[in-house]
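Narrative of activities, Objective 1.

The group set out to show that a structural description can be obtained from nothing but a protein's sequence at a throughput compatible with the screening campaign. Below is one input-output pair from the validation batch, recorded exactly as produced.
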Amino acid sequence: MTHKVNTLISNPYGNVVTVTVIGCGGTGSILLATLARLNQALLRLRRVYMHVRVFDPDRISENNVTRQAFSPSDIGRFKSVVLAERINRFYNTTWIGFPYSWQDSLDTVRSNIIITCTDTASSRIELHPYLIEWSATTEHPKKLAYWIDTGNTATTANVVMGGYGAKEHQIASDVYSIPKDFIKGESSFDERIASEPVPRLPFVTELYDLKEHEKENPLASCSLAESLEHQHIMINDFTAKVAGMLLWDLFTLEYIDWRGAFINLANLNIKKLRI
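Output recorded for this entry:
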């Protein structure tokens, strides 16, 4: 089977796709660098710009320097702010880092693609009802097309994409353009809807018992030494790259035949999760 990519992504208004990343620790910090590279490629290939917002309330500690994409000079600063500033300086983008939890600014979290890189099942379960609500809106910059969830254990990881945004309608992408002040502010506008039924992809919260999985696979985070002993140092890199591959296909193909993957570093196996 194949899935027709939501027109919010394949043919976006004003050539802008809004993206929210929740969590910028092990996987999230590496994924943001991957998103920055994808954005540069999309600007040249399709003239499409990804406007990224990242949420994380944590400050950088000494333990974060090895596993996560931070340097000793970053210690004490907010993870989300450091990563957004770094990418903006390097690529001349206008991405935004918010040094607080996504629950503290729900309206700002809303976007076309939401990517979760958090450690707990509870945060994903809490996010689920909001995603259903946001996918039903007709406010384009904040209308959800896809939720991509990433998670990992010591040597395994998963990337799972779901989407409600295109279940009943897709956005007519040639009617209006995004207001110029949207990227720097929170402006909104109405748009017309073109009927085009598209099968929905279930969210990760509908496919798996996340609470039970979390009980069976607790993550060690007491110290850097303990973290390195119990988690493969490359697991986050592989997870971020698979998520980047999925996003690349979403942006460059009209139809896709996979929605994520299961990763096992113990035997170097990556198995696609087919539609």
